[in-house]
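Lab notebook, design round three. We kept the backbone fixed and only want residue identities now. Task for the bench partner: fill in a sequence for the structure below.
Input structure tokens:
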């Protein structure tokens, strides 16, 4: 479903035990990066397991607009013939990134040090999200940015004709900011340095190294120091995209809260910068086994076996937030079915995602009978081992909000509805058939 489609209301009802295998889609973060680095390489990059949600398809279209040849060969199988670092052509039209904050921010970084001009736009949700956190460091390279008030989309970047390398300390823990700066640094001479006080997902660093860039990460008193040598010739690579741990969180959560459930989720990324939810679930007493642990495409993966069982409330420390930032909405649902209080700390970044995810979840869960408190940087759920249900929740064009409330409805006493499940297609186009195949009652 495109981001301009009519609303698609959905309702989830209390379900029997969920069983079977959940083949969740490819990792969204890695899919975006595979397309972009393939486009910045010289030659042909072959990608398997690519997520074919709308967000990633918008990035594929953007790479075509910048001159790369991007072709779908089969389900999840794509070929990218790149133009090389600094080889982007000026696009003829506006680059529409739909609902994807990752896509637009990484693409802006990839073109900011090439002497071309591009205008970026997105859907209503993306157009509300702040871009200054990325465009401010990009301007240090020498590009020029023109945007609406508040540095929001639509936004135009005139790439730097004579880019300079940058040393930048990220003001917040954000893999998007880090990645945008590193991608811009590819076409700047000398060394571009990014310093992050808290480690964030490291897919960009892993993939840059795989494509032949000279990149190192050092641990210093000020945090992680990532050093990239500019103007490499990136060499095309086969990329096997592991399955997305953020998408896997939804069937995993459903199995944990629906009595009698047992499911298997194969091939899920266990990247330590993305593993915070699973660390937290184990602390809550979740029955999760990690089998067949291995490495695919430079990323650690495992098969997850998940069974329903009792859960207890825990405190999630702020330093874990960056490794599970997309999973807090579904964790807040799981916390309702635990016994005791779950405190989520360091979650302020959720205020500026596709929606204000803290507010959206707190309002919706309260409407369904949960006891929830929130501040700017925390969310607290007083778990009572279940949820009343019975309400319709606003998704605010946010795929993770929609899926979280639908999972909640599978174990609540009364059905839970969402006003629009359409945005789910941006990250998890097969969510409905997959969940129904496990036994979920969603219509």
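Proposed sequence:
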């Amino acid at each position: 479903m495109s981001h301009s489609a009519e609303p698609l209301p959905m309702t989830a009802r209390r379900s029997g035990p969920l069983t079977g295998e959940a083949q969740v889609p490819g990792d969204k973060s890695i899919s975006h990066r595979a397309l972009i680095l393939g486009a910045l390489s010289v030659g042909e990059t072959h990608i398997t397991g690519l997520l074919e949600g709308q967000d990633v398809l918008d990035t594929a279209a953007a790479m075509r607009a910048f001159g790369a040849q991007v072709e779908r060969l089969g389900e999840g199988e794509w070929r990218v013939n790149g133009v090389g670092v600094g080889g982007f052509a000026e696009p003829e039209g506006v680059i529409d990134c739909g609902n994807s904050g990752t896509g637009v921010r990484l693409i802006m970084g990839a073109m900011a040090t090439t002497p071309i001009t591009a205008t970026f736009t997105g859907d209503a949700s993306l157009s509300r999200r702040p871009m200054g956190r990325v465009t401010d460091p990009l301007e240090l390279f020498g590009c020029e940015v023109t945007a609406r008030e508040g540095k929001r989309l639509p936004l135009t970047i005139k790439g730097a004709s004579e880019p300079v390398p940058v040393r930048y300390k990220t003001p917040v823990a954000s893999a998007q900011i880090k990645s945008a700066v590193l991608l811009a640094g590819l076409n700047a001479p000398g060394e571009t340095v990014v310093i992050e006080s808290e480690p964030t997902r490291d897919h960009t660093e892993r993939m840059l190294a795989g494509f032949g860039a000279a990149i190192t990460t050092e641990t210093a008193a000020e945090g992680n120091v990532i050093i990239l040598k500019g103007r490499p010739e990136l060499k095309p690579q086969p990329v096997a995209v592991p399955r997305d741990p953020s998408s896997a969180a939804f069937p995993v959560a459903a199995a944990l809260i629906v009595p009698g459930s047992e499911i298997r989720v194969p091939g899920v990324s266990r990247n330590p910068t993305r593993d915070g939810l699973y660390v937290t679930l184990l602390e809550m007493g979740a029955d999760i086994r990690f089998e067949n642990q291995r490495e695919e495409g430079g990323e650690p993966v495992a098969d997850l076996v998940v069974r329903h069982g009792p859960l207890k409330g825990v405190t999630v420390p702020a330093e874990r937030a960056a490794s599970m930032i997309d999973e807090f909405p579904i964790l807040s649902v799981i916390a309702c079915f635990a016994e005791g209080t779950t405190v989520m700390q360091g979650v302020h970044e959720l205020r500026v995602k596709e929606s204000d995810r803290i507010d959206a979840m707190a309002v919706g869960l309260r409407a369904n009978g949960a006891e929830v408190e929130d501040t700017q940087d925390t969310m607290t759920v007083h778990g009572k081992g279940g949820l009343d249900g019975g309400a319709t929740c606003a998704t605010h064009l946010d795929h993770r909000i929609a899926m979280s409330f639908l999972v909640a409805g599978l174990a609540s006493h009364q059905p839970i509805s969402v006003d629009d499940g359409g945005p789910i297609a941006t990250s998890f186009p097969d969510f409905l058939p997959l969940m129904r195949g496990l036994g979920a009652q969603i219509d």
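Keep this in mind before ordering anything: The chain has a mean pLDDT of 95.
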